[in-house]
Design goal:
The chain is about 45% helix and about 15% strand. By secondary structure, it is of the alpha/beta class.
């Protein structure tokens, strides 16, 4: 790694799953690797997460248990973030890498120059509008070049592919006689497509997939269960040891996504086990798979079937080398540190200019009502939620939210009506 100054880094995870997750959870898996790597590089890291997280770095939390049953509840995320930013303000940080959605909006509203965020989802619909509004105040990391292209005019600070620790993935020989599907039980993941392709190719398929949400169960019952049987088996959601065994013994990972997935972490995990990937040539797949060497990139369903008959032509050693050279935790950490350093330097320069009054052109504060709605949107939709939160640590929650959002008292009262 290049020599960089040691920093104090605050990482904020969503409150929904522990870090690392026991089973499915791409964002939390990446956060675990990032936190470990930053700490091993000598930086002072605090991970703001939930109390059941086992990541071996210092942690801070308000929820003792991860909040998966309440996933998406804005009040839960707000309380989590209020606690995190209060701790960060008290303890200080050179950079804050916030992996939530509400937190970066808060940082933009307050004009915090040392906050950056990773866009883990696609730049579409509401997310595109949100990131567009905050991108001039909060540095945004994209996780693939394809995702960055889809951001349009929204400035992207850097593209950083996810990484894994190759040493944590045992290499297999693909001697299980089956192909594997690993992911989430959802139409976008293409479980039914995988079944049809494997069955047409006459190759056994083992499916491991998360299935907790009502929509996931409905898709399974309607589109997947009728296709099971024979040499197609659903194993449920696997914990890490069983997942790695599934991957290392598979002839290939079959990953027929229907959407432009920003980054396919499961593809990297398969490659780390020496297992090639068969996928559609969309989203991040062409950035991960070396077509004809570490996998096959397909245009349609018939091409998937043909590719499954040619997996023995692929180089399992090359699959592993791709992770060691291009998708390792070490590389991911180094690229984050380079960006962190730049963000911290800019924040320091801005702080110096504001203290000395020497800035030629001060950045304007966001208007509470008209500046693309950053503050007004939050004040309008979030202040009411604050009343649902319990008082914590002796502070009235509504007062904390006023500080959290940086909204004037009149705006708070208006938004709470």
């Amino acid at each position: 790694m290049h020599r960089l100054s040691l920093m104090r880094i605050a990482l904020i995870a969503p409150p929904w799953l522990p870090v690392p997750p026991p089973a499915y959870g791409g964002t939390e898996t990446v956060l675990d690797q990032l936190a470990r790597g930053l700490s091993e590089a000598g930086h002072e890291v605090v991970l703001h997460t939930t109390g059941d997280s086992a990541c071996p770095v210092p942690t801070a939390w308000v929820y003792e248990q991860s909040q998966a049953p309440r996933m998406g509840d804005a009040a839960v995320e707000l309380r989590h973030l209020l606690h995190a930013y209060r701790r960060i303000d008290a303890e200080g940080a050179d950079v804050v890498h916030d992996h939530t959605l509400v937190g970066p909006v808060r940082a933009a509203a307050e004009g915090r120059p040392n906050v950056l965020t990773t866009a883990h989802g696609p730049f579409d619909h509401e997310l595109a509008a949100i990131y567009s509004e905050i991108a001039t105040r909060v540095s945004i990391i994209a996780i693939s070049r394809d995702q960055a292209r889809s951001a349009g005019s929204t400035p992207i600070a850097r593209v950083i592919h996810h990484g894994v620790d190759p040493g944590a993935y045992p290499v297999g020989q693909g001697d299980g006689g089956y192909v594997a599907f690993l992911g989430r039980m959802a139409p976008a993941k293409g479980v039914d497509l995988a079944i049809r392709a494997a069955r047409e190719a006459g190759i056994p398929l083992l499916i491991a997939a998360k299935m907790r949400e009502p929509a996931e169960v409905e898709y399974f019952e309607t589109c997947v269960r009728p296709l099971l049987g024979g040499e197609v088996e659903y194993l449920g959601e696997l914990e890490r040891p069983a997942k790695l065994e599934l991957l290392r013994r598979a002839r290939a990972l079959l990953n027929p996504l229907r959407w432009r997935e920003p980054f396919g972490m499961v593809m990297v995990e398969a490659l780390a086990c020496g297992t090639p990937v068969v996928a559609f040539a969309r989203g991040s797949a062409p950035e991960i798979i070396d077509d004809g060497r570490t996998g096959w990139l397909c245009a349609d369903e018939p091409a998937l079937v043909r590719a499954l008959h040619r997996t023995d032509r692929l180089d399992r050693a090359a699959c592993r080398r791709a992770v060691e050279t291009r998708f390792s935790t070490r590389r991911m950490v180094q690229e984050h540190l380079e960006l962190y350093q730049a963000v911290a330097c800019r924040a320091g320069e801005r702080g110096t200019a504001e203290r000395t009054g020497s800035s030629e052109r001060a950045e304007p504060d966001l208007d509470p009502v008209s500046s693309a709605g950053t503050r007004s949107v939050v004040a309008e939709g979030v202040i009411t939620l604050a009343h649902r939160l319990p008082e914590a640590d002796g502070h009235r929650t509504i007062d904390e939210v006023e500080t959290f959002l940086g909204v004037a008292g009149d705006a708070v009262e208006q938004g709470a009506e």
